[in-house]
Amino acid sequence: MIRLLATLLLAAGAALLHGPADAQAGDASLYQAFGEKPGLALLMDRFVETLAVDERTRIFFASADKPRLKEQLTDQLCMLAGGPCVYTGAKMRGQHRGLEIGRSDFNALVEVLQDSMDAQGIAFSTQNRMLARLAPMHREIITRE
Prior knowledge:
The protein is an all-alpha fold. It has helices at 2-18, 21-24, 29-33, 36-53, 58-61, 66-80, 92-96, 103-119, 124-134, 138-141.
């Protein structure tokens, strides 16, 4: 839990220092650090499969169209990392409306993402750079307090 809080604080701080994700889209170094699209696809395979079985998150992902979800998440992270992908999925707020996602649910998802990145050998500093770009989405994903 301490690692999660430290990471969220680092990500939030980085987001404030570096500005919105859109301003960083031209820098492909993060995309390259994740192994470009094949590395991101591998990461999303592990991430989505774990979300579907983790006791804290499976209620939200057990019946999901996993291949489509993996594809859309790969494109979304690819775009946020400065890669050539274009995310064409639904807006975050609309996609998560009515799911009753709380802060603890969101934190569990972030922990699964961190564990997935650790398992893939992604450096902590690289993880934090990605989390900083993802952090602003929490406002659109958490639907209950």
